[in-house]
Amino acid sequence: GGRVLVPINESRMVEQIADGHSLHVERTKASLGDLLAAATAGDVVFAGASGGGYVFPEFLPAYDAVMSLGKLLELVAHSGRELSALVEDLPRSTLVHVREPCPWSAKGLAMRQLIEAVKGMEVDHMDGIKVFEPEGWVQVLPDPDEPVFHVYAEGESLEDSRRLEEKYRALLDGFVSATV
Length: 180
Prior knowledge:
The chain is of the alpha+beta class and 180 residues long. Helix content is 39%, strand content 27%.
């Protein structure tokens, strides 16, 4: 039991996998710094992101490849199954991610216009803006170092995910083209 931390832009499959295992999943901002800072809290048992960085705070509150490999081997040994069989049992994510170019000069205005466009909808402003729609969710994150937006979308199907991503990418394109 304990808390599991993942960035806000990770698949909702994390909650599905943790369900029934006395684990409480919490979301952090999408940055490595925010994830690692939150991992130092006392009851966090795991923090990680799909990019491959995994933290076991009881051992070390930072990414640790050797500990991750050890935990993976432990999981396989206790299950009595092959790793490929365990992977096959995982739910399939439909998360898509695209990088949408945007001039530095237009990023702030495009973000404000997006916030206005989704007024009245269920949103999360923890990091960028995450919009919940009936068929899934979309998150738009302005990149802090490059002139791009990251658009993440996850729907019930891959087609739903792509439709959501395309819809919000088109909104961003419209906002950006109106400002340049």
